[in-house]
Amino acid sequence: MSAEDLDASRVDPDKVAPLWEEDTNVKNCVGCDVKFSMMKRKHHCRACGRIFCDTCSPHKDELPESFDMKGPQRTCDMCHLNLEKCFWARSRRMSKTEGESSSSNLPGWFPQLRLDADPAAADRPDVPTVHAELMQKLKDLCSEPEDHWARKFDKKGVKLDVKKMKDSALVVVRCEMQVDASLGKVIAIYNDKSLWGSWQPDMLKCQTLETINEDAEYIYVLYKVPVLDNRDVCIYSAWINGTVNDPQAKGAKSLISTSVGHPLGTSVRGTVRAKINLGLAQFVASEKDGRPHTTITSYFHTDPRGIIPPRIVNSAIGKTVDQMAQMIKFMESSDIPEPEKLPADGDDSGATKTALV
User: Where is the START domain (predicted)?
Assistant: First the structure.
């Protein structure tokens, strides 16, 4: 969905504010389904009137004048994104018709939203450049000799290795695991963002910010960090055929990712923006005892930023083993059916299909 595709927006600047949902009998958050309690309070989104927890309604946005609410108002994730998309789309259309964009020419409520000097030139990543640079980094990493890696864990069906990265105090992590399930089933589960919380309990939300094409998108992810501020990331993610070093490999798919800046990936109060320097998950089909198996090999180099010392970050990698083991268990026990089509099944990959759809 492009920034101008607003048919799903629940925020209509030409209408009055919606009636608030009655909260007497509401027991769970509309967004994440968490149960409300004394510690997890109810909050109304001022834009749509529905009831959310604090995590799912962290934004403060100025609403249209017709809503008759002055000052920043609490909004949920979807309404926040729709307000952003509405703003960018309107400003682009005005810049095209008037030859330039000016806050003085925008509707009264637009200057209250995020407004760059030139909204028509929204700062979006150069997809071909981001993709090419990331692929080169991943090719170099996957070509590293085995003796450059140090084995840290080999348990619960997960092999975890680390290596030092040039000009970084943080190690890059490699995990390899075997899943007793077909390639199609494994990818169908991994490609469903709503299921990631099944093996990553600290993940508070994961949502698509903007679709680039059927195999690539911008994603926003928010993680809970005990004691410290939560972390979030805005990433470019794309599926490719084969493996990084062998695009023609049969029965193989890869998902690559890296942090990027995006106009819809706005900051959230009380949250530190982390950085995924590089991410890769390779899926290769195989057979064992006549049954379909899938080998997953993942690489990631992440900087949580903030005040966390690198040695603390590096020492916490053991937690990854438990998460991967839980993922294996979930994939093997799930009854999700085989998908009709796998990602990157066409002639093109995320490297070449760059038009927003």
Answer: 120-317
